[in-house]
Amino acid sequence: MFNGTLVFIIIMSVVLCALMAYDKERAKNNEWRVSENTLMTMAILGGALGGVLAMYLFRHKTKHNKFAFGLPLLGAIHVFLLVRLAAL
Length: 88
Fold this sequence. Notes:
Blueprint lengths: L1 H27 L7 H22 L7 H4 L1 H18 L1
Keywords: Membrane, Transmembrane, Transmembrane helix
Organism: Caryophanon tenue
Protein name: DUF1294 domain-containing protein
């Protein structure tokens, strides 16, 4: 159970990191963007750690409170849940 959950969180984190990089590139070119709701949904579903990494790698969404505070909080919750699962 733990291994599957860990793999899922890693995959979701990579996907969200790539999606935020894509959104940042679109923002630079003043093109259609990925919605914030989509990004937050991906974070809630397990990609928060990748979202935090992307925020600082690409300097993207760092001024938006729901990302600047929400993604690290979600990431901490995901890590806590992983630790709890590993202890079972």
